[in-house]
Amino acid sequence: MIGKLDETLRFQETALSLRAQRQQLIASNIANADTPNYKARDIDFGKALQGALDARASEASPGLTKTSAVHLSPAGSIGAGDAPLLYRSVQQGSVDGNTVDMDVERNQFADNGVRYEAGLTFISAQIKNLLTAIQG
Predict the structure, then answer these.
(1) What is the pLDDT of residues 107-124, one digit of tens each?
(2) Is residue 118 part of a domain?
(3) How many domains, in total, are found in the chain?
(4) Contact, 50 vs 117, CB < 8 A?
C-alpha cells in the first residue's frame, strides 16, 4: 500500500524539488544582476526531471553514490538528478560582462513560481482523492 502511495506522489515530489532548486538559481541570478562578469545560470528542467526520475527508478545504479546527505554533488550540478548547470544565452551584452537580463529573469521567476503552485495544487488534489477513497 505504501509503495503505491509513494509511486503516486513520486513524480510531483521530484518536480517540486527541482522547481524549488530552479527558483533558487533564478533568485541568485536576480541578486547578482549588478555583479561584474556574473554569468546567469539555469537548468534544462525537462532533462533534469527525466534524470531525477531515472535515478529514483534505478536506486542501485552503478557510478557515484552519495552515502550521506553531507556529501557533495558532482561539480556543476544541483543535486536532484545531477542536472548540469547551464549558462543562459546572452540577449543583450553589457559593458561589465554581466549576462543577467532582468526582464528574462523576472519572467522565468514568475513562470517557475506559477508552475510550482500548480504542482502543489495537483498534489493536494491527489491526496484529497486518496483520502476520499480511504474514507469511502
Answers:
(1) 999 999 999 999 999 999
(2) yes
(3) 1
(4) no
